[in-house]
Amino acid sequence: MTDTLSPSVASMLGQVTEDGDSIITSLKTELLDVDVDVGIYVDQEYSIPYTPSDTETLDPSLADSGFNDALSLQCLESVFDWKGQKGDDKIIDSPASPTATCMHHCLDHQGFEDYLDDIYYHRLSIEYKYVVTTCLENQPEVDSGMRGLLVSWMTGVHHQMKLCQDTLFIAVNIVDRVLDVMQASRDYLQLLGITTILIASKLEEVTPPEISELLGCCDGVYTRDMAKQLERVILDAIRFDLMVPTSQFFLEYYATSCINSFQGFQGDQLRQSRALARCVLELSLQDYDLSQRRPSMLSLCVWKIAVEETKSDDGDYLPPGLFHSCEDFEFIYKEVKTFSENLLHNLPDVSRVCEHYYRLYGIE
Questions:
Q1: Distance between CA atoms of residues 50 and 227, nearest Å
Q2: pLDDT at position 103, please?
Q3: What torsion do the CA atoms of 180, 175, 339, 319 make, to the nearest 10 degrees?
Q4: What is the Cα gyration radius of the chain?
Q5: CA-CA distance, 101 to 98, in Å (whole number)?
Q6: CB contact at 8 A, 58 and 66
Q7: pLDDT at 47 (0 to 100)
Q8: C-beta of residue 230 within 8 angstroms of C-beta of residue 194
Q9: Is residue 41 classed as helix, strand or coil in its secondary structure?
Q10: Contact yes or no for 332/131 (Cβ under 8 A)
Q11: What CA–CA distance (Å, rounded) separates 276 from 315?
Q12: Could you tell me if 217 and 250 are in contact, meaning their C-beta atoms sit under 8 angstroms apart?
């Protein structure tokens, strides 16, 4: 038998190097050079297996969502079902504690409080390295609508499995970075989605989901070996660089800085602002244009709009070390404002959603 990449995985990823060489070939060579078992063995004449049509391949909830370059809120279904209160318009003033899977975030910075500012400045200095601005230019089958649909579906999987919000932001960043260097078939977008969730979960979760759990979200279209093999390809493509300064990180830093400056009613109001900002920022992952903005700037605009919507006061907070022109800020602010208005228009029951995000990481 000959060690080669699975035809199904190879068909998903294409050639995009400037000199015309296939990235798949180079990655395969690297894997074989270090004697790594790629999991599937086929000969060169093995034909690519039949792939169902797009609507058959995609999960029914994904294919029938009606996404068309617009905001998809179907990913929040499990949020509305949170605590079994779907259909109940009662507003709860005391949000319940989150599941244990998210509690570890509160412990992440214990003992490192003195270094939080240094961590912030470091991530601020390297964020340009991870901003992807042209990931769809060389994609013949994937457009902004398909990307948004994928991210919406990934968000739903993330909520269903009760994963940390950090996991979702890192997973989506990996998706964009992979699409920036490799061509993808729309038939295999879900495989790309669950594999990036798997990678991000190993980085962020105390107990990452099993591969079988993630494959179950795809109705058994893909196999365990395909996921394991694609995981190797992805990690090689991004050079195992997973310490991404996400917009979620900057939002938490900004919000925490403001909340720690105020007490009493004003502090509680800012916590409501943070809850709304978390929701808006998470849903903004679906928007291709917003995904191309600097994470630090995007987070600041989302935070300012959330403060405005909740009628809070953050003391005209400006993040340290963040340099930008007035034109850049106003441009991104208008984009986020339009996005937020669209969200609030389509999501009238904001209170229930914000309740879920209020204590996303436990007692804060």
A1: 18
A2: 43
A3: -90
A4: 21
A5: 8
A6: no
A7: 30
A8: no
A9: strand
A10: no
A11: 18
A12: no
Rounded Cα distance between 92 and 303, Å, is 23
The 10s digit of each residue's pLDDT in 170-229 is: 999 999 999 999 989 888 999 999 999 999 999 999 999 999 999 999 988 999 999 999
Place of tokens 């029914």: 60
- What secondary structure does DSSP assign to 262-331, as a single string? --HHHHHHHHHHHHHHHHHHHHGGG-TTGGGS-HHHHHHHHHHHHHHHTT----S---TT----HHHHHH
Locate 179 and state its tokens: 């699409």
Terminal C-alpha separation, the chain = 56
Q: Please report, as a single letter, which amino acid is at residue 104.
A: H
Least confident of 15-29, 98-112, 142-156: 15-29
User: What is the pLDDT, as a whole number, of residue 328?
Assistant: 86
Spell out the SS3 assignment of 87-153: CCCCCCCCCCCCCHHHHHHHHHCCCCHHHHHHHHHHHHHHHHHHCCCCCCCCCCCCCHHHHHHHHHH
Give the separation between CA 362 and CA 205, rounded to whole angstroms.
15
Specify the pTM. 0.75
Helix axes 224-237, 165-181, angle to 10 degrees: 70
- Return d(Cα 258, Cα 315) in angstroms, integer: 8
Q: What is the Cα 283 distance to its own chain's centre?
A: 9
Task: Return phi, psi of residue 24, to 5°.
Answer: -60, -45
The full set of domains in the chain, from first to last, is 91-104+246-358 (1.10.472)
